[in-house]
Design brief:
alpha+beta; three-stranded antiparallel sheet; two-stranded antiparallel ribbon; 5 strands; about 10% strand; elongated
Length: about 200
Amino acid sequence: MNYEKIYTNLILKAKKREEVDPSWADSEYTERHHWYPKSLYPEYSKEDWNVVRLTAKEHYLSHYLLHKMLPSCNKMSTAFWRMSITNTEGKRHIPNSRSFEVARKAHAAAMSELHTGKVHSEEARAKMSKARGTEARHTRPVNIYCHPTDELLASNVLVGVWVTGTKYSKAGLCNTARADRSKPSSTYNRHQYKGIYARYIDQGG
């Protein structure tokens, strides 16, 4: 199937419709589309000839065709997937199960290719970890206090280093550092561990 020809004809048909009746879009819901995708051709993104108004169904079909034309292009796969899942105003075209599955698989393949073998810089890894809330606990310095007197026992130490040779475990002390003290102490929100507790310095500890 000649996907490029189908795509071009769809765009030219929409362009012709605008020429015949410039006000046609005023009477129904339409979506703005770049004939040459701006993610691939940013130099054309603001050119009038490259922008066309499409119906919701036409817009979805356009991104389906772009994906079929460029099946190895991650940007087109991702754009097609977003068209399939984004419907904030409830006006976008709702794909059938077959189209949705095509979009899902295309996006999954794009993400797999994007991340396979990718080595992130230490700075990028730290930012991603912090965003996920899973920054390596052993690299975050803490202050350690006595419970319940709040007397400072150790300042600016690493839990894994400090507990070495003591009766305390790294996991037990780290659990106290993560505790939400605005809520009652519990099995999953321990305020203290064997009479002491830790607070991460970067969280005001």
